[in-house]
Amino acid sequence: MTTSIRTNIPDRLVQQAAILVNDGWASDLDEILIDALRRYLSSHSAELSETFVREDLEWGLRGNG
After folding, report:
1. Cβ-count burial 1-14 (b if 16+ within 10 Å, e if not)
2. Measured at the alpha carbon of residue 5, what is the angle toward residues 1 and 45, in degrees to the nearest 5?
3. Amino acid 57: pLDDT
4. Measured between alpha carbons, how far apart are the two ends of the chain, in Å?
5. What angle separates helix 11-22 from helix 29-62, to the nearest 10 degrees?
6. Rg, Å, the chain Cα set
7. What span, in angstroms and rounded, lies between the C-alpha atoms of 56 and 65?
8. CA distance 21 to 15
9. Which one-letter DSSP state was computed for residue 16?
10. What is the pLDDT of residue 45?
11. What per-residue confidence (pLDDT) applies to 30?
């Protein structure tokens, strides 16, 4: 299953992505965007988990509950 997304991307980023496609680093712009989103979500999931743990610890240390 896939979802289509409409967005505005700065021209310079599209130009850089086109160079990568032309040089054979990716098959198309979709591949680059999917990989970029996957990497972003992966790198930020640990930060989100850490934030939730920190909030739980602060809540527990305050003795609420």
Report:
1. eeeeeeeeeeeeee
2. 75
3. 81
4. 42
5. 120
6. 19
7. 12
8. 10
9. H
10. 77
11. 96
Other CB atoms within a 10 A radius of the CB of residue 17 amount to: 19
- The Cα–Cα gap between 17 and 29 comes to 7
Q: Which amino acid is at 5?
A: I
- 18 or 58: which carries more pLDDT confidence? 18
For residues 60 and 31, give the distance between their C-alpha atoms in angstroms, rounded to a whole number: 44
Rounded to an integer, what distance in angstroms lies between the CA atom of residue 20 and that of residue 13?
11
Task: Please identify which residue in the block is written with the tokens 């640990």.
Answer: 46
Question: In this structure, are residues 29 and 37 in contact, taking their beta carbons and an 8 Å threshold?
Answer: no
| Whole-structure pTM value | 0.65
Q: What is the Cα–Cα distance from 8 to 26, expressed in whole angstroms?
A: 20
Amino acid in the structure at residue 60: G
pLDDT digits (tens, 9 = 90+) for 19-61: 999 999 999 999 999 999 999 888 777 777 777 777 778 888 8
